[in-house]
Specification:
- This protein has about 325 residues and is of the alpha/beta class.
- The chain folds into two domains: about 1-115 and about 295-325, Quinone Oxidoreductase, Chain A, domain 1 (Alpha-Beta Complex); about 125-265, NAD(P)-binding Rossmann-like Domain (Rossmann fold).
- Helices cover about 30% and strands about 25% of the residues.
- The strands form three sheets. Strands 3, 4, 5, 6, 7, 14 and 15 form a seven-stranded mixed beta sheet that branches. It has a six-stranded parallel beta sheet with strand order 10-9-8-11-12-13, with helices on both faces. A two-stranded antiparallel sheet has the order 1-2.
- Helix 6 links the parallel strand 12 and strand 13.
- Helix 2 crosses helix 8 (about 275-290).
- InterPro entries: ADH-like_C, ADH-like_N, ER, GroES-like_sf, NAD(P)-bd_dom_sf, QOR-like, Quin_OxRdtase/zeta-crystal_CS.
């Protein structure tokens, strides 16, 4: 038996219980992974609270990214063997010491990427990859606005977007977070608590506005985010940490400049094995060569997952956080 965090009823951090769970043995096409580090993400709180329903109901082992070592390979698994270092994002079930998972969801870790770096950046880093390279292909000369610049995705995206040649504008809620974002690629960071971010973007860009806005905040930043876009610019809503965006009349997009809007999710972008491998290769390359620094700012024992969730929701964390089994 091994230990895992399980949710038996939706609610606050207190519903995360640390208990014994049998991970089972790998079947055909599966492997047993012994985790060494597990990523913490705001998405985890959505499944815990019930904002996002658990795909297979409760009880649920949350968590969507981790790194570890192959402990056992099932029948028909090619390319992976016991001892291989691996990482993954999706499906749920990462808050555990061990788990059985489909081999085709795993990617091997290169020597230049540590277990903690991988656990902290698979979901967030692959999110940054698809946002910057596929949802909107950022290129030299583009101006982008990225909300929650000091968050896990924001810190990775700031560095990567700067490397791609963009003018990178971010928002954050405190002086410390502003400085952190500036140290991770952002040219300008707006304190959304004491400034009108729309007015600030207009001033920073000389009235030219942005080619794309990446918004994981939701309710509190919409529709202001639309007012930061050039005509025919793209609004990318990929989260809702402040709550969901209320239903709106599509005509607002035409009124504000024939804008485009999309609500992407990582899991669509990595559903095919070839896309997962390509995205992971791009991510590992920029981490290994130092273009993007995947820095873990907080570590908690897996047993302390409830405290980690409370700190995350209380905005007492910055950048990446990992749980250690």
């Amino acid at each position: 038996m091994s230990k895992a965090i399980r949710i038996h009823a939706n609610g606050g951090p207190e519903v995360l219980t640390y208990e014994e769970v049998d991970p089972g043995r790998p079947g055909s096409g599966q492997v047993l992974v012994r985790h060494t580090a597990i990523g913490l993400n705001f998405l985890d709180t959505y499944y815990r609270s019930g904002l996002y329903p658990a795909p297979n109901g409760l009880p649920l082992i949350p968590g969507g990214e981790a790194a570890g070592v192959v402990a056992e390979a099932g029948e028909g698994v090619d390319g992976l063997k016991p001892g291989d270092r691996v990482a993954y994002t999706t499906p749920l079930g990462a808050y555990a010491q061990e788990r059985v998972i489909a081999a085709d969801r795993l990617v091997k870790l290169p020597d230049g990427v540590s277990d903690e770096q991988a656990a902290a950046s698979m979901l967030k880093g692959l999110t940054a990859e698809y946002l910057l390279r596929r949802t909107f292909s950022v290129k030299p000369g583009d101006a982008i606005l990225f909300h929650a610049a000091a968050g896990g995705v924001g810190l990775l995206a700031g560095q990567w977007a700067k490397h791609l040649g963009a003018t990178v504008i971010g928002t954050a809620g405190s002086a410390d977070k502003i400085e952190l974002a500036k140290a991770h690629g952002y040219d300008h960071v707006i304190n959304y608590r004491d400034s009108d971010f729309v007015a600030a973007v207009k001033e920073i860009t000389g009235g030219k506005l942005c080619d794309v806005v990446y918004d994981s905040v939701g309710k509190d930043t919409f529709p202001g985010s639309l007012d930061c876009l050039k005509p025919r610019g793209l609004f990318v809503g990929f989260g809702q940490s402040s709550g969901p965006i209320a239903p709106f009349n599509m005509a607002i997009l035409s009124q504000k400049g024939s804008l485009y809007a999309t609500r992407p999710t990582l899991f669509t972008y990595i559903a095919k094995r070839v896309d997962l491998e390509a995205g992971a290769a791009a991510l590992f390359e920029v981490i290994a060569n130092g273009t993007v620094r995947s820095v873990v700012n907080q570590r908690y024992a897996l047993a302390d997952a409830a405290r980690a969730h409370a700190d995350l929701e209380g905005r007492r964390t910055t950048g990446a956080t990992v749980l250690i089994p």
